[in-house]
Specification:
alpha+beta, 6-stranded antiparallel β-sheet, 4 helices, elongated
Length: 173
């Protein structure tokens, strides 16, 4: 009985010859197209440049408990805290940028630049190495982790201005 199953299975396991030929043609065509593109210097069209809506420089500092403190470089205030064991995407992107800084023997003092573009994109740049990361290519959830830094910093600045106004009113009284 086992011979019966084996003989039936082996006769039906053949891949159609037309399929094999079509797959081979697709592989060769792909290689030809890539070769032509490389030899002619073809560059895919780039999206038109977008205007900057908001751009801030931040320093990221590791805390002993695993948190990452985000400081606004303009005035040095604490803009955001990435709590320990959260925001793995933020940590991963920063780890990659810091690794490149170490390879270039650049310290942690120069800030990173977070930019919100008019077309909704977010990018993170390291002016000291020239590295640029388009955050939206990792998906909206991951990009929103960096957007939270800008939003929190905006809220902090608004609260700070309101506090200054309250102090000014008290001084006038």
């Amino acid at each position: 009985m086992s011979q019966l199953f084996m003989s039936r299975g082996s006769s039906n396991d053949k891949v159609p010859q037309g399929f094999i030929i079509a797959a081979g043609v697709m592989v060769v065509a792909s290689l030809v197209m890539v070769s032509v593109a490389r030899l002619t210097g073809y560059q895919p069209p780039q999206p038109p440049p977008s205007a900057i809506v908001e751009q801030r420089d931040f320093r990221f500092v590791d805390r002993a408990d695993g948190a990452v403190l985000v400081y606004d470089s303009a005035d040095g205030h604490l803009a955001y805290t990435v709590e320990p064991s959260t925001e793995g995407f933020v940590r991963g992107v920063l780890r990659g940028l810091v690794r490149e800084r170490r390879a270039d023997r650049i310290g942690s003092t120069p800030p990173f630049r977070l930019t919100h573009w008019a077309d909704g994109r977010l990018s993170l740049d390291d002016p000291s190495t020239g590295r640029h990361v388009d955050l939206e290519v990792f998906g909206p959830t991951n990009a929103s982790a960096f957007a939270a830094i800008l939003i929190a910093d905006d809220a902090h600045k608004v609260a700070g201005e309101a506090h200054k106004d309250q102090l000014a009113q008290k001084d006038r009284s």
